[in-house]
From TrEMBL:
The species this protein was found in: Methylobacterium variabile
Coiled coil spans: none
Full protein name: Chromosome partitioning protein ParB
InterPro entries, per the entry: ParB/Sulfiredoxin_sf, ParBc_2, UCP029669
Transmembrane segments: none
Amino acid sequence: MSVRDPILHSVPIAELRPTQITVGYREVEAKRRRWREIGDGDREKFLGSHMIPVLLGPKKRRYVIDHHHLARALQEEGVENVLTTVVADLHDLEKDAFWVVADHRAWVHPYDSDGVRRDVGDLPKRIEDLADDPFRSLAGELRRAGGFAKDTTPFSEFLWADFLRRRIKRKDVKDDFSDALEEALALARSKDAVYLPGWCGPHED
C-alpha cells in the first residue's frame, strides 16, 4: 500500500485535508515571517525541499499528515499550490476503515484546543479552518529554546503541549508569553516530564 518512490504532485492548498484540529498560530506566524525573508528566486527551491506528506484517502482526497503549520502559513501568504508526496495510498478503503488505519499508524491527531480527543468527524475540512492551540505554540518555542530535543515520535510537540496545558494557565500564555516560556523551561527539566519524547532533564547516576 505504501508508495516507495517520492512521486510528487502539485496540489492546491485549498484542496488539502487536515488530520488534526489545531495548530499554534504563533508558530504559523513565525513560518510566515521566514517565508517573507526568502528571496523570490529561492522560493521555488524552498517549496521543492518542503514537500507536504499526505495520505491518499477515500475519493482520492489528500490528507496532510505533517507540516500543517507550513501549509497554513503558505496559504496565508498567498501561495496557492504546494508539492505533496503520497506516503500511503488508501483511497480504496471505506471511510471508516481509512480512519482506523490512520489512527493506528499515528497519522491522525483529533484533539481540540483543550486537549480533548474528538471524533474524526470534527476534523476541519480545510487548512484554513485549523483552530489555534496556544499551548502548541508554547511547546514549539520551548523546543527551540532547548527545553526538549526534536524527536521522531508522532505529534511529539502536541504531547508537550498537553503536559504544559495541565500546569500553566491559558491566560498566562496569552497575556505574557515570555513568562510562560520561562515557566515551561523549568517544567521541562523536571522529573514530571521524564516520560515525554526528547526530555533533556538532569539524569541521576
